[in-house]
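Here is one such protein, fold included:

. . .
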Amino acid sequence: MTIIAEYGPWFVLLACIFGFFMAWGVGANDVANAMGTSVGSRALTVRQAIIIAMIFEFAGAYLAGGEVTGTIRKGIVDAAVLEGSPELLVYGMMSALLAAGIWLVIASYMGWPVSTTHSIVGAIVGFAAVGIGVDYVQWGKVTTIVLSWVVSPLLSGTIAFLLFRSVYRLILNTDDPFANAKRYVPVYMFLTGFIIAMVTLTKGLSHVGLDLSFSASLALAVLAGLAVLCLGLLMLRRVRIDAEADRAFRYASVERVFAVLMVFTACAMAFAHGSNDVANAVGPLAAVINVVANQGVVDAKSALPAWVLLLGGGGIIVGLATFGYKVMGTIGRRITELTPSRGFAAELAAGTTVVLASGTGLPISTTHTLVGAVLGVGLARGISALNLRVIGTIVASWIVTLPAGGLLAILFFFMFKGMFS
């Protein structure tokens, strides 16, 4: 208690700095890969993607980012064991934020799309196992997370493969692909609005206590799908055949139809992502603020002040705008060549996988899901369409993420313990 009372303001200040740093890493890596398909398919420019992300990521983080966040991330550590030594929780959460932030800087610099959730989970497991005790880590939960490395890319990749094959069969491989695009793309528009609304309703808005039943969410998602359909039909009226562009690339006019879809998916995914993944940065920060405010009382849940969400949302935007271009390039151009029709299939597959995971309780990474979907789209055109060397590097970075975060957190944990004890 003495340590908390003596150094409390310093702990809060340091946690805010490290939390902003971690949020910066989320923007530079996680948000960048969410925008990568839109940019890589040339449906949006980098500047347009950044503006959309600034608006919708921030809105998602602030409006639906949550009043209450689990501070002991994913139930990995039993909070009860820390009641007698609250300063260990403070050291650990500051270490986790700093360690995960540094790993995200390294991964973003290298252009590796890694999971920010796994980065923070690895960091918390590291300090908990060494600083508190191996027996107090919920290893079953960690095993489930590791399994998600395989499950989520496989699921999203399969859905993306089937989606793009349907586009190829119904539109691209026909005698009049432009007319068929006008006929079938509205159906995909409805699906996009419906799926993304389900993502937001089942994952995003639960943070603000809007506890909708599945049937209510389903009804609202249908309405959202119809709204996107109507707006999309109005926008599609402006799309005309460009004969000159079609001479250079047969599907140029068709891809312009799909580019309209990508605008919707980019906006909606940015909102849903901001509402969920901002917790990676502000969850540990909330834990520190809670312990200091309660003079050392450790709770499993912490009230989350609005300014903390603003801090997290601001860090995400700055990270994307200043350092997101490298991961965008990896997702959008280096794995496989994306066009609006392929990028749309990848984004819709990723959104569908998140909805399925929400319904079944399967813990997944949005990064792994999106990368898996891009792989599925590429595989639909044959194995030669994939850059296997880049894929191998990405998989290796996923494997390294958990131990890298853990080792860095251990180092910083003992550093803070030595500084303040």
The CA atoms of residues 15 and 285 lie 6 Å apart. The beta strands are 68-70, 301-303.
